[in-house]
Specification:
3 helices
Length: about 70
């Protein structure tokens, strides 16, 4: 399992360490990291939290930091 996570981190680094990859990641970050997931509709909130969860996993495995993005 640990080897699988190590390999995934390497794969994410390869994928997102390019200029193009950083732009794609930045687009995803803007969509899911900075917006509130709350909605009056609990199903919509759950859906948004699911999207945010995917972004957070990508962030965790990519080792990218806020300074890696341009605003």
């Amino acid at each position: 399992m640990a080897e699988t996570i190590k390999q995934l981190k390497k794969d994410y680094a390869i994928c997102f360490d390019t200029l193009e990859g950083k732009r794609v990641f930045d687009d995803i970050r803007r969509s899911y990291q900075t917006k509130s997931s709350y909605s009056k509709d609990p199903f919509e909130t759950a859906f948004r939290e699911g999207q945010r969860s995917v972004f957070l996993r990508m962030l965790n495995l990519s080792n990218l930091k806020e300074v890696d993005f341009n605003e």
